[in-house]
Design brief:
This protein is an alpha/beta fold and 344 residues long. It contains eleven helices and twelve strands. The protein has a domain of 240 residues: NAD(P)-binding Rossmann-like Domain (Rossmann fold, 3-Layer(aba) Sandwich). The protein has a seven-stranded parallel beta sheet with strand order 3-2-1-4-5-7-10, with helices on both faces. Helix 1 crosses helix 8, helix 4 runs parallel beside helix 6 and helix 7 packs across helix 9. The longest helix has 23 residues.
Length: 344
């Protein structure tokens, strides 16, 4: 697939989301026209107002109030002759009262919904890139020694009922498998690529006004910046790999047009981290926070069960070079200083 003209239009779902906001920045820098889906006109106006003036003419928005609703994306896909679709619209959170309603339905129905709309109403669409997750690769219930793009989470619907982490992993896995099956069953004219990013840190969106709006994967850094771990360091979670959101955005944008990316998954992961390493990265970048950060002698041993990962495909096919932890965390912490004294 040759590189598109600078005026090719992209449909970007979940347009105000953490990852989508960085994808949007890169698309605009490259000269693409973008229609971002949002849940309300208010969110659309906030998104547009946050953009530099030079990009205002490149962006519009379409309202998709509920990604699970039948025919949710039909009108958005019909609204313009799109060359590409990047589908990021699925929430990531840890509050779960109903695994099917909160995670599995949004993942499966949202994913198949955008593919169905693209298939029926998007004859000009060349490729769809889906934001999946490392949760579809990892077995977070009982980690394997090594993971790559051939790995799939074995969690079941029964596992999803145990806790929100299992529910999220199961939902993303069901959603991704449904996407591949849709393409197998329907043979659409577009190609499909999948981005399976791990725990994602990075600078927060420009338009956030409250710490409560910060994405879940950045909460650890936010808590440290706000002095909420000054007395004790919380233990590192069972996901011990990270990636910078800007690298995740680059992966999506390149997967759109790189010919060899068609029909492939990409395990997008930079390196390992611990909460101790995060606190030291913040201390190095923002020494004025020293007294509000976890104690220097905090102990956070790297777990013996830590899994291996193979990210060679993302480097070879997409040409990714990963941002190191110190820069990623430092930039993220700086972007959160506006929330240091803000009430939740």
């Amino acid at each position: 697939m040759p590189p598109p003209s600078s005026h090719a239009r992209v449909l970007l779902t979940g347009g105000t989301g953490f990852i989508a906001s960085h994808i949007l920045d890169q698309l605009l820098d490259l000269g693409y026209l973008v229609t971002a889906t949002v849940r309300s006109s208010e969110k659309g106006k906030i998104l547009l107002a946050s953009l530099p003036e030079k990009f205002q003419a490149q962006v519009d928005y379409a309202i998709v109030r509920d990604v699970v609703a039948e025919n949710a994306f039909d009108d958005a896909v019909k609204s313009a002759p799109f060359a590409f679709v990047i589908h990021t619209a699925m929430p990531y959170h840890t509050n779960c009262s109903d695994p099917v309603k909160d995670f599995i339905d949004p993942a499966v129905k949202g994913t198949t919904g955008i593919l169905r709309a693209a298939h029926l109403y998007g004859p000009t669409i060349k490729r769809v890139v889906l934001t999946s997750s490392s949760a579809t690769i990892l077995n977070i219930k009982n980690h394997e020694k090594m993971y790559n793009e051939d790995s799939y989470s074995p969690l079941t619907l029964e596992d999803a009922m145990e806790n929100s982490h299992f529910a999220y992993s199961t939902g993303k896995t069901f959603g991704e498998r449904a996407a591949w099956k849709f393409c197998e069953d329907n043979n659409p004219s577009f190609e499909l690529s999948m981005i399976n990013n791990t725990y994602t840190f990075g600078p927060v969106q420009r338009f956030l006004t409250s710490p409560s709006q910060v994405n879940t994967s950045n909460h650890c850094i936010l808590a440290m910046v706000r002095g909420e771990m000054k007395h004790a360091l919380e233990p590192t979670a069972k996901i011990v790999t990270f990636v910078d959101v800007r690298d995740v955005a680059t992966a999506h944008v390149r997967a759109m047009t790189v010919p060899e990316a068609a029909g492939k998954r990409f395990f997008v992961v930079a390196d390992y981290f611990t909460n101790k390493a995060i606190s030291e990265a913040i201390r190095e970048r923002l020494p004025e926070l020293d007294e509000d950060l976890p104690p220097r002698d905090s102990h956070d041993e790297f777990p013996a069960w830590a899994y291996g990962f193979d990210n060679s495909r993302s480097k070879a096919v997409l040409g990714l070079t990963y941002t190191p932890l110190a820069k990623c965390v430092g930039d993220t912490a700086e972007s959160m200083m506006q929330f240091r004294e803000a009430s939740k």
